[in-house]
Amino acid sequence: MSDFAAMREAAYAANMALFESGLVVASFGNASAIDRAAGVFAIKPSGVPYAELSPASMVVVDLDMQVVDGELRPSSDTNTHAVLYREFDGIGGIAHTHSTHAVAWAQALREIPVYGTTHADHLTVPVPCTAPMEDERIRGDYEIETGRQIVDHFRANRLSAAEVEMVLVGGHGPFTWGLSAAKAVYHSVILEEIARMALLTEQLNPSAEALKASLIDKHWQRKHGEGAYYGQ
Questions:
Q1: Which of 31, 156, 197, 211 gives the lowest tally of CB atoms within 10 Å of its CB?
Q2: 66: in domain
Q3: Which residues are designated catalytic?
């Protein structure tokens, strides 16, 4: 087994979890896992159906976006992952899907308001949505610019990638991340559910207002605050 075996296993497990969650179809979507000490990450190969994946098929890439190990071409979104790993120091895994409800909000160019406690359990602000990419960026390295677009949006809006572990790229779709690849996939699942609930909320009540601040804070603190008591 290579020195990258554990990282490849983590990336493979994350990609299969994405598929099993129903958030991806055909060969869409991808997940990656990083080894910070080695400065490399493992990611799904491009265009390979999930049923044909294995830990060995994961491609190892460095943060300069060069393939280090693997015989297949890495995901077309590899450069976006590399930018996010470089700029968001604490993250250990990234996932990208084309899940239906999250993509719908991205295509509508709308952030997802905090309508309820499910959302507040995971973040205290709306799920951010970037603007559509400018033509100059589209003419450049599209995948690198996608990563930069996310980073620029977080900086401009003073968002912390450690607290807001998900984003909608306007007109494109969601990216999520976390301390591990498994956590990144978990956040993809949560984002899709938040997006679905918010859509239903607006259908039932087009004038729905955001959840009041005291409830948002309560639900965030009980899971993430110093006195957190949710879970074991």
A1: 156
A2: yes
A3: 121, 230
Residue 163 sits in a domain of what CATH number?
3.40.225.10
The number of domains in the chain is 1
CA-wise closest residue to 167 among 130, 216, 194, 125:
130
Q: What is the pTM of this model?
A: 0.95
Does residue 94 lie in a domain region? yes
Q: State the residue range of the domain holding 138.
A: 5-224
74 beta partners: 45
Please list, in sequence order, all residues whose beta carbon lies within 8 angstroms of the beta carbon of residue 202, skipping any fewer than 6 positions away: 208
- Asked if residue 229 is part of any domain, the answer here is no
CA proximity to 91, closest of 192, 158, 181: 181
- Which residues on neighbouring strands pair with residue 42, listed in sequence order? 33, 60
Left, alpha or beta for 138 (phi > 0: left; psi -120 to 50: alpha)? alpha
User: Nearest-CA neighbor of 96 among 173, 178, 193?
Assistant: 173
Report whether 60 contacts 8 (CB < 8 A).
yes
CB 26 within 8 A of CB 18: no
What gap in Å lies between CA 7 and CA 232, rounded to an integer? 27
Q: Within a domain: residue 192?
A: yes
